[in-house]
Design a protein that fits this description.
Layout (H helix, E strand, L loop, with lengths): L3 H12 L7 H4 L2 H4 L3 H19 L6 H9 L5 E4 L8 H5 L6 H13 L4 E5 L2 H6 L1 H17 L3 E8 L29 H4 L5 H14 L6 E8 L19 H18 L6 E2 L14 H9 L3 E5 L3 H12 L5 E6 L8 H10 L3 E5 L40 H13 L3
Parallel strand pairs: 1-2, 1-8, 2-3, 3-4, 4-5, 6-7, 7-8
Helix pairs in contact: 1-4, 7-9, 11-12, 12-13, 15-16
Length: 406
């Protein structure tokens, strides 16, 4: 799809005399005079286009609603292949496994899922931007083959704040998400000399896929600036004043992403607190005032899930729940997915296939590691071989995705 300036240049090119002329002849008044109205209009529109592109701000409520009406009901999972412990192991060249990803996204397709939320990492761009971009392109192609679109996550405040490229550590037995890493690292977050590198990452990734219909949207920062991590034992390693640093950086990240003129919506999910306008905290206010569509997390019982939807509904924007479903705390497919469908809210649960992230263990496994498979899984839908943890759940998902429509 051509950008408007490209279209106008084509119009001008087609309107110019086709015979060969010298440079002097091409600027003679007699040659320009017949084209003056076209050149004047084109110059004006090009100028306006430049102004609009530079001024790309938050979508209006009407733009956001019009976009959402064009989408199928977004239903899917937060996705990482079973053989990767974190974002780095998923994407690094030496551990990237497109065959496994193809297999697992085929299983997602069989459930009727049409959306996957997938985390990226800034160190991968720093290491090899071209290779990283090619691997993202490969995954997007695999997803499209399975009629799935991808919500890409650029930054993440959760879990280990000291990520390293190269071979990743093995999972801690019996512990939930023992190898997940933050982006940016605590060291990068507290060192503003690295912000230029982070800006290059955001602009580069977004520009590469800014008009790509395989990408449903951009989740710019996961849970900013979460320091709790469900008990992940990383508090001593977090950046000092993490919340202040993230709060200052978050609006810049939105600005960097918009500079690449994405056709897809931008968002950052709310995850805690009271979201009525009077009770918003500073970070939440930034998320709402900058996001084109609203997203949120809720590992809550259905009454609180519905209350969160109602609170966000006052902002008159499309809503997607980008994390839910934690069985042992009362968030299930059976009590949450029907509410999301009724309220026209997208629903992306945590976890597709049980694997090295071990998110079928609950958060309290950080304090008391489990021995063997828990009686009731926390997250995840399928076993490593693709069979259902609970066939009744997968039957429900298939039923609802077949009938679901916005």
């Amino acid at each position: 799809m051509l950008h408007t300036p490209d279209i106008l240049r084509d119009i001008l090119r087609q309107s110019l005399p086709r015979r060969h002329t010298s440079a002097a002849q091409r600027v003679m008044p007699s040659a320009i005079r017949p084209l003056a109205p076209i050149i004047c209009i084109a110059s004006l529109v090009l100028s306006l286009w430049g102004t609009l592109a530079a001024a790309r701000g938050q979508w209006t409520e009407q733009q956001a609603s019009a976009w959402y009406r064009m989408q199928p009901w977004p239903v899917g999972a937060n996705y990482i292949p079973a053989n990767a412990i974190n974002q780095l192991e998923m994407w690094q060249a030496e551990s990237f496994d497109p065959n496994r990803i193809d297999l697992e996204l085929g299983w997602a397709q069989s459930l009727g899922m049409n959306t996957m939320r997938i985390f990226l990492h800034d160190l991968l761009w720093q290491q090899d931007p071209q290779g990283f971009t090619r691997r993202i392109d490969r995954v997007l192609d695999i997803a499209r083959h399975h009629h799935i679109r991808v919500l890409l996550v650029l930054f993440d405040s959760c879990w280990d704040p000291d990520p390293h490229l190269g071979k990743q550590r093995a999972p801690v037995p019996g512990v939930h998400n023992s190898g997940w890493v933050q982006s940016p690292s605590a060291k990068a977050l507290e060192d503003n000399s690295q912000y230029g590198r982070l800006e290059t990452y955001v602009k580069g990734i977004v520009a590469a896929f800014a008009n790509d219909d395989r990408v449903i949207g951009w989740d710019l920062w996961n849970e900013p600036p979460n320091s709790d991590d469900g008990g992940g034992n990383y508090a001593a390693h977090e950046a000092p004043h993490k919340a202040v640093l993230v709060r200052a950086l978050l609006p810049q990240v939105f600005s960097w992403a918009r500079a690449s003129e994405p056709s897809q919506p931008l968002t950052s999910g709310l995850f805690d607190g009271d979201w009525s306008s009077r009770a918003l905290r500073d970070t939440e206010r930034i998320q709402i005032e900058e996001s084109d569509i609203l997203s949120f997390h809720s590992y809550d019982r259905p009454e609180l899930f519905g209350r969160k939807i109602r609170a966000l509904g006052h902002y008159n924007r499309p809503i997607i729940c980008t994390e839910y479903m934690a069985r042992t705390v009362g968030s299930t497919f059976f009590n949450t997915l029907p509410i999301a469908m009724k309220e026209r809210v997208g629903a992306i649960n945590w976890g597709l296939v049980a694997g090295k992230t071990q998110t079928y263990y609950p958060w309290d496994s950080w304090q008391r590691p489990y021995e063997g498979e828990p009686a009731l899984w926390f997250h995840d839908v399928l076993r490593t071989d693709g069979t259902a943890y609970d066939p009744k759940e997968t039957a429900l998902i298939r039923q609802m995705t077949r009938s679901g429509s916005l």
